[in-house]
Design a protein that fits this description.
The complex is a heterotrimer of chains A (208), B (199) and C (322). Chain A has 208 residues and is an all-alpha fold. Chain A contains 9 helices and no strands. Among the domains of chain A are: 89 residues, no CATH class; 38 residues. With 199 residues, chain B is mainly alpha-helical. Chain B has 2 domains: 100 residues, no CATH class; 85 residues, no CATH class. In chain B, helix 1 packs across helix 2, helix 1 packs antiparallel against helix 7 and helix 6 crosses helix 7. In chain C, helix 8 links the parallel strand 4 and strand 5. The longest helix of chain C has 37 residues. Chain C is globular, with a radius of gyration of 23 Å. Classes of the chains: A mainly alpha (208), B mainly alpha (199), C alpha/beta (322). The interface between A and B is large, with 120 and 114 residues.
Amino acid sequence: MKRTLPLAIVIILGFLFVGYVFVPHKISQDFYDWYMEWMKAMSPFGVILGIMSITMTHTARIQHKVPNWQYSFVTLIAMIFTAFAGFAWGTQEGTPYMWLFKNVQMPMGATMFSLLAFYIASASYKAFRARSAEATVLLIAAIVVMLGQVPVGVSMFGEGINDLTQWILNVPNLASKRGIALGVGLGMVATSLRILLGIERTYLGGGE
Amino acid sequence: MFEIISNWVAAFLTLCIFSFLYKDNPFYKFAEYLFVGVTAGYTIPLTWEQAFIPYVYRPLFLQHNFILIIPAIIGIFYIFTFSRKLNWLSRYPIAFGMGTVGMGVPLSMHASVLVQMHGAMIPIENINTLLVFIGTVTILLYFYFSKAHTGTYGKVVKIGIWYMMIGFGASFGYTVMARISLLIGRIQFLVADVLHIIK
Amino acid sequence: MNIFERLQKLDRRWIFLVVAIAIILPLIFPFNSKTYTTEPTEKLYRLIDSYAPGPNEKPVEKDRAVLLCFTHDASTMPELFPMEIAILRHCFERKIKVFTITFIASAAPIMDYAINTVKEEFPEVKSGENYVNFGFKLGALQLPIILGMGEDIAEAVDIDAEGRKVSSLPIMKNIKNYNEMNLVMDFSGSSAGGAWITYARSKYGANVGVGVTAVMAADEYPYIQTGQITGMLAGLKGAAEYEKLVDVFAANPDPNKKEFSRELLKDPKWDNAITDKGIAYKFKQARIGMNAQSVAHIMIIVFILIGNIGYFITKYKQKQQQ
């Protein structure tokens, strides 16, 4: 009941979906429409999980007075206020909710990622060493591609650098990525098949 | 005026995040925790408006399609993830969602494996196609770990390693470009939209 | 400690400062530079351009359309937003029917912002006739909508971002499914059109183009070679290339020069866009960014070379001492 029934649901639905891919009959389409209607009704509740997780984590931090616990108030107040703004004043353009998204969430999200530029420069200086022949080849390929992408590289070395970059991307890079993609594709098919046949059950979680 | 204040708020928060580059400080911590809170709060009204109202409330209460009470209840079972006793109930919505894995098997097999294999089986007309063929085969041999990579087999597999190093070098070159682009975007915002130095 | 040992132990905050200066200066002092277009971008441009109505055709009756799928959040906007703007500008200039959709909540405002930014320059473009924003659809609905559009787009999407029934809109004349809406452009920082290739292309033969961050670009070449991906815009460079193509052809004031031609592309006057006040800043953002990119790349290469020279000299000295 606790593990068997969910497993049975996955296996039965899985095989029905395999049938859906190959069977063009109306009954197959009706099954698909039924499944999607039920998924649409089920999916909004997944968000509750995330909200509960954040709330529980930060209230626990405040209760146990862990280091920097005061900042958890910032998170909880921001979450409550943003949600309240969305419900009270709507989510259209020009509302406080959209203002928060455009001037708080968007800039900070973009800035978090932009920090990586500094770290990649620091890593290039401190860690990128031609310790072996393979590492040297990697380094040379990286430098050629970096020069080929920018106008300055082409001005310094002529259009040949652009052609060399395209050759690297279309020949050795293509072969490399194809080999890796085939491996990943086969892995994905194998994992999907294991889930379909009920061999892989990690999605059910631990416990009885 | 309002737009100017909005831009300055965004600029202040941007600089709070950048201050981490010097060292961790209260401004950065404040911005980090604020970001998590606003991101979480943002999804709640959006999910309510775009998912709950059209796909749960309207069909159930306005269109009287009462069968949908079953998936709604199954969806509510998600919250039992946090309960020690009733944790097993949360497996039901997950299991229902996992059903589409059956569709993934033939379609991924087609898109990720068969089409790629078909693309790899091209006539060897020139040096480039020969190099692509050799590279693809040697890399696939490299990933076959059931045989030890020694002797002649090891030498053949070494060619695959060289190909992968060139591929990773190309990826690194592109990664540098990507990361720098993200920083350029933020600096463009500060320089153009906030300080109006360029327009 | 000699200079090389000191350089090896340099505090990384000095490196951060050099990076910041290397990027700020080219943005404050913009200069013109040549943008070289590559085959994946040109291929995509030509495909989208082929959807333009003929001289005797009404745009609303054309039986071709493009779908732009925004699959990213604000963190990857610097690379993807300029390409979205460039493609929307191309579509509005050439009166190509364009739809926009997203399955990520945080991309919905980005989509609105992109459409409004370009629409400012095209007051004659109308929602429901020249373009439609399908809006945000829940992630769980991605698969049903992708598959549903293979049969009937209006039925799969149902309502647009403004709450209108898609089937009632004038733009849907002669547009039923992927046979007519024949190109899907997926702008993404991670999935790179995966779902569209697996489901829309495999089952319905839809063309799939991708606008990806540069991180993903190298991984997509096998899919370009097999034809699963029709064309690709790779990062800020891809955006800069497309901006140039739109300037040279779609936005060309001469109506006889709107068709793609390699001869026209070689004209050096098109490389003065950055200092040309006639082109709005929003339509040359990527090209301005590429100047800073150039300086940053040279800086990174210099860092790599200095780091390695220092490493080898230090290693040689250590060997000698032993």
